[in-house]
Amino acid sequence: MSTSETSTHPSKVRMTCFGEILWDIFPNMKKAGGAPFNVSYHLKKMGVDAAMISRIGKDELGKELLQKLGNWQIPTEFIQIDERQSTGTVIANFDENNEPHYDIVAPAAWDFTEWAENTEMRVKSSDAFIFGSLGVRNQVSRNTLWQLLEVTNYKVFDVNLRPPFVDFKLITQLMKQSDLVKLNASELEQVLSNMGKHFPNTKDGMAFLQEEFRLDGVILTQGSKGATYLNGDTLYTSEVVPVQIGDTVGSGDSFLAGFLSGKFLGLNPIDQPLYNASMLAAFVTSHIGATPEYDTSDIQDFKERNDAPAHSKTHA
Fold first, then answer.
1. Shortest CA distance to 162 belongs to which of 201, 108, 210?
2. In degrees, to the nearest 5, what angle opens at C-alpha 176 toward C-alphas 174 and 178?
3. CA distance 67 to 72
4. What are phi and psi of 124, to 5 degrees?
5. What DSSP letter does each residue of 216-244 carry, written as one string?
6. Which of 13, 18, 54, 24 minimizes the C-alpha distance to 36?
7. Kind and range of the H or E element at 25?
8. Mean pLDDT in the chain?
9. pTM, to two decimals
10. What percentage of the chain has pLDDT greater than the value 70?
11. Which residues, including other chains, have CB under 8 Å from residue 201's CB and lie 6 or more apart?
12. Which of these, 34, 153, 3, 157, lies nearest to 105 by C-alpha position?
């Protein structure tokens, strides 16, 4: 695996996300979405030079996505236009616990993201490259990802188990290519179970993945139980920040963006990116939608108004 030095110059930090870009269709509205799309938004908000590699249809929904990216000052030259496939959509509904459930329409334009010289150059010049498992459910996008991984400096795998588009063989292959892996508690359990592994606690499960795939680190989000980051033989934990929940859509995406921006913008000590991630995720969860409008002063105000979550570290 490759490694990357943490940058101490914010203006030079560059990250690129790859995968699905789409519209989440809710009962009473539609929201631009897709995990890598959400991550790129929050990275940009955190001061990172963020970009998104994906594909949209030649339709009105696609035009709206391009306009939204332009408004966010995220470059659009890495968004391909498909003449045949439609812009991706997801039908979203909430259960009694306010948790979202998705019907992901297939095929969609982002399934056919192709390799291009400009995308390779962008990835090659990025400090980190973020990708997920859903974004490569189709062989065309999958082949493109494999090519881009060959030129990547630091590979961040955001596991997204979205039935029926779950391929555990592919997931293990992607973990072998990764430096950092992020999962939630359910995803960790499912991945380990598929490998025939069962551990008495999440710490041991994370340690197994780190050793098995020679990872630089593992991030585990656990909803109301907070989050955990395993780096080497040290486990860092952060309690959840109590907020009035707007909805939980995209909270994991904002968490990842908060962590990566903290890590590469040089927040020290090592548990500070975890703190940054927890605060950003709490802020987003207190709003409606995965990409609420805000700026850095809003996050700073939020941190000052809320008690800092308890942090601890233990030797794994």
1. 108
2. 70
3. 9
4. -60, -30
5. SEEEEE-GGG-EEEEETTEEEEEPPPP--
6. 18
7. strand 22-26
8. 90
9. 0.91
10. 92
11. none
12. 34
d(CA 173, CA 161): 15
For residue 114, give the nearest of 82, 87, 137 by alpha carbon: 82
Q: How far is CA 271 from the centre of its chain?
A: 19
Q: What percent of the chain has pLDDT over 90?
A: 71
pLDDT for 310 equals 59
Tokens representing residue 271 in the block: 């548990």
Q: Is the pLDDT of residue 294 over 90?
A: yes
**Residue 268 pLDDT > 80:** no
Q: Quickly list H helices, 82-201.
A: 117-124, 139-149, 168-176, 185-194
Q: Six-digit token pair at 3?
A: 């490694």
> Each residue of 87-128: pLDDT tens digit?
999 987 777 777 767 789 999 999 999 999 999 999 999 999
| 113 vs 142: CA distance, rounded Å | 9
pLDDT digits (tens, 9 = 90+) for 192-232: 999 999 999 999 999 999 999 999 999 999 987 889 999 99
CA pair distance 231, 215, nearest whole angstrom: 9
Q: Which amino acid is at 290?
A: A
Q: Length of the chain in residues, anyone?
A: 316
Rounded Cα distance between 231 and 315, Å, is 10
CATH classification for the domain delimited by 13-315, as one of 2.40.30.20, 3.40.1190.20, 2.30.30.30, 3.40.50.300: 3.40.1190.20
